[in-house]
Amino acid sequence: MQDFEVPFIERIYDEAKSLLVEARDYMQTLAPAERATMTPLENLQSISEGLRLTTRLTEVMAWAMTHKAAQAGEITREEAVHPNRRLGGQPICLEELDVSLFEPPPRLVSLLRRSLGLYKRTLRLDRLIAGEEMQFGSFNICLAASETMKSRPPASQPRLIQA
């Protein structure tokens, strides 16, 4: 399990919070007028994508708050990477917008793209902190030694395994 400085987790939290406020403002002001011109099926799709947007952002915020709590000593690092506290909602949050179903308003598309990017970055960090393998080009990098290993490499030197 890797430790990351508070400012890094803080930036993720701040970005999620900023996007959430922007999404709220959009949903309260522009979205109702835009949905009024849509067919019932497009309206349903727009609402569904809005829910996906808020799910991504709240999952990221909850994850960031968990890791801020670990850094503050309120919970242990082991508790922070417990499966119940890992970044959730992957089946919903990783699904990308299917523009073949309907053409969403540009502002919604922008929010969806930015929230997906943030979610994916956070998912990579979640996996890194938990010590799962990550793909970088033709290399697998595992930053946490297995509990069954007889000798552990220094934490500052990740194990590289060529794929």
Kindly provide the radius of gyration, computed on alpha-carbon positions and rounded to a whole number of angstroms. Answer: 19 Å
Helicity, as a percent range: 55-70%
Please count the helical segments. 5
Number of strands: 3
| CATH topology descriptor of the largest domain | Helicase, Ruva Protein, domain 3
Structural commentary:
There is one protein chain. Strand 1 (134-136) and strand 2 (139-142) form a beta hairpin. The chain is mainly alpha-helical and 163 residues long. It folds into two domains: 6-132, Protein of unknown function DUF1465 (Helicase, Ruva Protein, domain 3), CATH 1.10.8.930; 133-163, no CATH class. Residues 142-151 have low confidence and may be disordered. The longest helix is centred in the middle third of the chain and has 32 residues, at 40-71. Helix 2 (40-71) runs parallel beside helix 5 (106-130). Strands 1-2-3 form a three-stranded antiparallel beta sheet. The chain has five helices and three strands. 59% of the residues lie in helices and 7% in strands. The chain is elongated.
In short:
The chain is built from five helices and three strands; from the N terminus they run H-H-H-H-H-E-E-E.
Provide tags for this entry.
2 domains; 163 residues; mainly alpha; 5 helices; Helicase, Ruva Protein, domain 3; three-stranded antiparallel sheet
Secondary-structure map:
Elements: H1 6-36, H2 40-71, H3 77-80, H4 90-93, H5 106-130, E1 134-136, E2 139-142, E3 159-162
Antiparallel strand pairs: 1-2, 2-3
Helix pairs in contact: 1-2, 1-5, 2-5
